[in-house]
Write a structure and sequence with these properties.
The chain has 18 helices and 14 strands. It is α/β, with parallel strands linked by helices. It has four domains: 135 residues, 3-Layer(aba) Sandwich (Rossmann fold); 176 residues, 3-Layer(aba) Sandwich (Rossmann fold), CATH 3.40.50; 86 residues, Helicase, Ruva Protein, domain 3 (Orthogonal Bundle), CATH 1.10.8; 48 residues, Arc Repressor Mutant, subunit A (Orthogonal Bundle), CATH 1.10.10. A hairpin with an 8-residue loop joins strand 11 and strand 12. Helix 16 crosses helix 17 and helix 17 packs across helix 18. About 3% of the residues have low confidence.
Length: 464
């Protein structure tokens, strides 16, 4: 029965008059919108929205207890992704402007033709559909190759998950909407932000700024600038980074640590595309794309009572990119080690202290909590000290690093009868996998075979 409902999630109708709710339900039913939920008491709107996935809201303004404007503000704060259409008998332009600035999707005054209501609602439902498509886009692995691989030339990878990230970046770069990049420290969030800017076609600069720990005034002065005399010591006017990044991209790093008062100002910038320099009461228009990054789980922080605004989070999340940590892309370890060994050797004018194979064997069981940045530091330290002795130890129950095979004798010891050739191959593959911590690429390199040959051998063993 639910398969026949449209839309899949209910449209919430809010009015304190039963007759108005009944009339609205029949109007929508005649237009094929069969999934509705009526609410007579405005105080129940937020609990209903929290309990159900609401597709859209049709909201009356004149109600007791909580007015429609108050309900609209609460919905915009806690459920900014849900479009709200205001339907009211109030014919005041100021009220309409106020509601639209709060976040109303549309504002209709009674009497309203049924066709106008259904057309507005269908536009709102289409918006939700596009939001869902955009959300699912980043989870898909697109077929084909990158159209602009040069934009990612500075990122060393052969990992399929990273290529899916690149393809998503190509898809969303021209849109101009805000982007939120999340991932552990050292995963390369700024590199992805620079790639998005390069792909966007925007002619302005890429301007990065770390906003962690900036108080409200420093944040405002840094981004928005100030007028002469705005505060003691402001002897000259200053243009903020928004002007510097005009026509380009402003990259806000560590956005998860942004001061609550600064969050309000950033939200206004995203909503209104305007800002106030310190000491000025005349707004300036902002022509800049915002890309933000954080190594914190903002949604988890909110659930635990954190102070990051939901409405700001949803504004920033027009596009969301999650970068995997190094431990989830260990097939890239050889590429990264070779790159950083070569880079460190040239930068320090020192030959590497050993082979890349011995370095890989030593690092293959390490978790890399600092990710790419930590790996780079490890290799630079090893090259500068001309020793692999100080490499980090593996965490947990993972196997210990291998010794350099060049320092050990190639000796095999057998007790009792010799194993068959097939059995010896299985034992050798098992030992290589144990020493590499399960990394098939590294195990294949130890055995002197391709990864594909190793995989075929493993499949053959399972099927025998």
């Amino acid at each position: 029965m639910n398969d026949d409902l449209y839309p899949a999630n209910p449209v919430l109708l809010v009015d304190d008059e039963q007759q108005a709710l009944t009339s609205m339900t029949h109007t929508l039913l005649a237009a094929g919108i069969t999934h509705t939920l009526a609410c007579l008491d405005s105080r129940n709107v937020l609990p209903l929205a929290a309990a159900r996935d609401i597709e859209a809201v049709l909201l009356d303004l004149t109600m007791p207890d909580l007015t429609g404007e108050e309900v609209l503000a609460l919905l915009a704060r806690d459920f900014p992704h849900v479009p709200v259409i205001v339907i009211t008998g109030v014919h005041e332009i100021d009220t309409a402007v106020r509601c639209l600035k709060i976040g109303a999707f549309d504002y209709l005054t009674k009497p309203v033709e049924p066709g106008r209501i259904t057309a507005s609602l269908r536009h709102a439902l289409e918006l939700r559909r596009l939001q869902r498509e955009n959300s699912s886009l980043k989870k898909r692995i697109f077929p084909g190759c990158l159209e602009h691989p040069e934009a990612f030339a500075h990122i060393i990878t052969n990992d399929s998950t990273m290529y899916a990230v690149f393809q998503y970046c190509e898809a969303i770069a021209p849109s101009g909407l805000p982007v939120l990049i999340t991932g552990e420290t050292g995963t390369g969030k700024e590199l992805i932000a620079r790639s998005i800017h390069a792909l966007s076609g925007r002619q302005g600069q890429f301007v990065p700024v770390n906003v962690a720990g900036l108080d409200e005034n420093v944040f405002s002065d840094t981004l928005f600038g100030h007028r002469k005399g705005a505060f003691t010591g402001a002897d000259e006017a200053r243009q903020g980074l928004i002007v510097k990044a005009s026509g380009g991209t402003l990259f806000l790093d560590e956005i998860g640590d942004l001061h609550p008062a600064s969050q309000v100002k950033l939200l206004r910038l995203l909503q209104e595309r305007e800002y106030f320099p310190l000491g000025s009461d005349v707004p300036k228009e902002a022509n800049v794309r915002i890309v933000a990054a954080t190594n914190r789980d903002i949604q988890d922080l909110q659930q635990k009572g954190g102070n990051f605004r939901k409405d700001l989070f949803y504004r920033l999340c027009s596009h969301h990119i999650q970068i995997p940590p190094v431990r989830q892309r260990m097939d890239d370890l050889q590429l990264l080690c070779e790159h950083f060994l070569d880079e460190a050797s040239r930068a320090l004018n020192i030959a590497p202290p050993g082979s890349c194979d011995s370095l890989l064997a030593s690092l293959s069981a390490y978790d890399f909590p600092g990710n790419i940045r930590e790996l780079q530091a490890i290799i630079y330290n090893a090259v500068s000290s001309h020793s692999f002795e100080s490499l980090p130890k593996p965490a947990g129950n993972k196997p210990a690093p291998l010794q350099d095979s060049s320092k050990t004798a190639d000796t095999l010891l057998f007790a009792g009868n010799l194993p068959t050739l097939d059995r010896a191959c299985d034992m050798l593959i098992g030992e290589a996998l144990r020493r590499s911590g399960g990394n098939q690429t590294l195990a294949a390199k130890m055995l002197g075979i391709s990864r594909q040959t190793l995989i075929r051998s493993l499949k053959k063993d399972r099927h025998s």
